[in-house]
Amino acid sequence: MDLLEPIARSSNLIKLNDCFIILIDVQEVFLKKGLTNSEIQTFILKLKHLIRVAQVLEIPIIITVEDIKNNGSIPVDLSTMLPADFWIYDKFIYSCWGQEDIQNAIKNIGKTVAVMCGLETDICVCQTSIDLLSNKFKVVILSDITFSRNKNEHEIGLKRMENSGAIISTLKTWQEEIAGGIKTEINLKLRKQNLSDIP
Fold this sequence. Notes:
By secondary structure, the protein is an alpha/beta fold.
């Protein structure tokens, strides 16, 4: 198949080479407080897709957990997808930017667009996004893999972030935006790994 790349891209569109991913506090103790078992399964399925996309497209990813000693780590379904030496950050400050080791990791990546998901929308995700926006990052929230304990808190968090300058998106919308078309090199890589269809 002949590749066909876009001839022009607006500065408002998200580009692959600018992106890094922050996956915040996806721990079973929190998942069970806001989602049904069926919703948790869908949530994990989308997160697994996101991690595979990150691996195939070589997008840096930072994963945090809140107080791992008391709250546990990420679900096994996700941890088994990661390299054995992958570092998961133990977080005690709501905003990832507010904790020195995580802030340093973000700075060292050297990317400008933070693609964020996890929980909770109105607390850790929201505070992190506002801090990043204040420090000249562009922020994309994958709203379908971000949640709070109830719909009202989730919507309030999304509205607060959007009003602060974050881009509210979805896994599908973001993936298609960085792909840019059906015959692009990015889309071809995803299709070869059966990642073109988003859960």
